């Protein structure tokens, strides 16, 4: 079942350690088949070196395993909340990448300081609110998904392709699993650049709006000119 999507999700997961975004078994990537209402996700706690397409776990939209011999990622419910909320998403990623986590642990959004960030989003990467004790004691993972949705708000998941869960780490998304991983890679670089910039100049101003908007619109939307898609 879902052979092609299993392979795609496997490849996307293997890109995480290769891109320096994860250590040990941290992190996960999922992909969704909207027509069948099924999600494929990394199994929980399995080393990346041992992953195969067959070890990817298929769950339905309630999180029930429908195919696979392993337990799915502990973040499965978070991914499902995002897919249910945003039909345009085809892939979701969670990592504990160092610089994005630093901002999450500091409870600080990542400001738009340069064009690398603007190429990804014209908005600061937000930090979600803290979970309540009741949310943590209840369905912690689903509650995490809900605070990510709250942080996106009315701006939508295209303009806000990443949110930092406070004290936890980044969640990113995209059209498909590989696109979501690309967002994670870009986010980590942007977080690194932002940290270095603010160390050099604590009062560094945000990127000028006209430059920010130019960079965003040349890569996104109907007027996009970047790449070979024209």
Structural category is alpha+beta
| Percent of residues in β-strands | 5-15%
Per the principal axes of the C-alpha atoms, what is the gross shape? globular
Report the C-alpha radius of gyration, rounded.
17 Å
Helix-residue proportion = 40-55%
Number of strands: 7
State the domain count. Answer: 1
Main pleated-sheet profile: 7 strands, antiparallel
Sketch the topology as an H/E string, one letter per element. Answer: HEEEEHEHHHHEEHH
Number of helices: 8
Arithmetic mean pLDDT = 96
CATH level-4 homologous superfamily: Class II aldolase/adducin N-terminal domain
CATH class: Alpha Beta
At the third CATH level, what is the topology name? L-fuculose-1-phosphate Aldolase
Through-space gap between termini: 35 Å
Strand arrangement across the biggest beta sheet: 4-3-2-1-5-7-6
List the uncertain runs. none
Quickly give the CATH architecture: 3-Layer(aba) Sandwich
Kindly describe this structure.
By secondary structure, this protein is an alpha+beta fold. It has one domain: L-fuculose-1-phosphate Aldolase, CATH 3.40.225.10. Helix content is 40%, strand content 13%. It is built from eight helices and seven strands, in the order H-E-E-E-E-H-E-H-H-H-H-E-E-H-H. A seven-stranded antiparallel β-sheet has the order 4-3-2-1-5-7-6, sandwiched between helices. Strand 3 and strand 4 (65-67) form a beta hairpin. Helix 2 (76-85) packs parallel to helix 6 (140-152). It is globular and about 50 Å long.
